[in-house]
Amino acid sequence: MDRIRKQDAGSILRAVMCAFTAAFLIAALFAPDLSEIFSGLKRICLLPAQLTKDYFKPEIGSISGSMLNYFLVGAVCCALMFLPGAKVTGGTVLAYFLTIGFCSYGMTILNIIPLMLGVAVYCLIKRQSFGKNLNFFMFATAIAPIITQVLFYYPTVGEEPHLTLLGVVLALVIGVVTGCAMPALCAHSPGFHKGYDLYNAGPAAGFLCFIIFAILYKTAGVEAPAITATLGEGNRAFVNVFCIILFALCVVCGIAINGGVKGYGQLFMDSGYKSDFTAKYAPGLCVMNIGVYGLFILLYYNLVGATFTGTTMGAVFCMLCCCCNGATPWNVFPIMIGYVIMGLLNRAGITAFAVNAQAIVVGLCFASGLAPITGEYGVLAGIIGGMIHYCLVTSVPIIHGGFNLYNGGFTAGIVCFLYVPILEHYFKSRSQRKALRR
């Protein structure tokens, strides 16, 4: 254990992510529909990936096929972490969990390839090492569903999947454009949300996907596919058992690496504003927060009665992604309250979606990116931020045709654009109040 404690945070977190990837393969082998593992994976890769498609649903994929997809995509992400010059930080943890989170609804081992190739082209153009752009290889996959669409279903809609030369060319062009644009757009995004959206790549991917969608369909006069959700019944036992074991092990390992829980209280109460926990806190505390935050997320979804589809499982990991980059149960809980309030209003006929509706379950996942608002402006500000996000998240997909997997992160960026200037104008932030007390 002493040898592990001497490792830097990057090495420890890289090992944790490799362990998660291995766990997905083990889960695939223990899935209740193991006989469908390869046929399920094939269906996942060929059928439309536009939001929202539940890969657990037998007609679309299978639980075992989805878990194999998690493993394959995770293995690619982990391999990138070993490239020369690659530095694993809180941003890398965010990129990894955000990428694998979509492996059960929207992302496949096939549709990420052109996008990652695009980042490789960017590296060659800029004469930078692949390792230096580690996170962008993963963030570029945000618009993966549109790759599946152009490969097999463009320009016709509703036919059987068929690979065309036009589709391959379009996929490669979109991949290069995305790979070259995302680093620049992500660098500019903080100016849009002022650091209050932990899903920094959300606005970048949202606006980029909006442009690509407009060119492919509106400008070209091609009929766009309807945005429809295809959901199964889910498997509560499988998802809960898998996640509880993983997250509990993270808590135990974190405590062991840290030599106790000392220091976790400070991390727990961190504002989350422009925070990289891997730089601010001991590695063991970061691993511990992965587990604590993961169990917290799982508890919430069980309490609200979410259906544990592939989409819900994906939302758990997408929400978990900010655990080393600013999110803790403390600063996310008020945002959850905002969502619950709006969900309860559904019972009175005031709002359209219950708190456990699939769209809202996923929406809350990305609303958690507003955690710095809670940290800097207090609980009430976080609750209101969650309520605003609830109102917007189901209306945004029409802008990008449902092809942007970071839809909720894009929505969080819009919330910040509208809400943060008002907070700054009328209230003092936590940082400002501290400065005044000195």
Care to give the gist of this entry?
The chain is mainly alpha-helical. It has a domain at 2-219. It has helices at residues 2-5, 9-29, 37-46, 63-80, 90-101, 113-126, 134-139, 144-152, 165-193, 201-219, 236-258, 264-268, 277-280, 283-303, 310-320, 329-344, 358-367, 371-377, 379-393, 397-400, 407-426, 430-437.
What do these coordinates show?
The protein has 22 helices and no strands. The mean pLDDT is 95. It has 438 residues and is mostly helical. The protein has a domain of 218 residues. It is globular and about 65 Å long. The two termini are 41 Å apart. It is 65% helix and 0% strand.
* Class derived from helix and strand content: mainly alpha
The beta-strand count equals: 0
The CA-CA distance between the termini, in Å, is: 41 Å
Which regions have little confidence, pLDDT < 50, spanning 5+ residues? Answer: none
Q: How is the quaternary structure best described?
A: single chain
Percent of residues in helical segments? 55-70%
In N-to-C order, the SSE pattern is HHHHHHHHHHHHHHHHHHHHHH
Determine the strand fraction and express it as a percent band: under 5%
The general outline is globular
Major sheet attributes: none
Keywords:
single chain; 438 residues; mainly alpha; 22 helices; 65% helix
Give a topology summary.
Layout: H1 2-5, H2 9-29, H3 37-46, H4 63-80, H5 90-101, H6 113-126, H7 134-139, H8 144-152, H9 165-193, H10 201-219, H11 236-258, H12 264-268, H13 277-280, H14 283-303, H15 310-320, H16 329-344, H17 358-367, H18 371-377, H19 379-393, H20 397-400, H21 407-426, H22 430-437
Helix pairs in contact: 2-4, 2-14, 3-4, 4-5, 5-15, 6-9, 8-9, 9-10, 10-21, 11-14, 14-15, 15-17, 16-18, 16-19, 17-19, 17-21, 18-19, 19-21
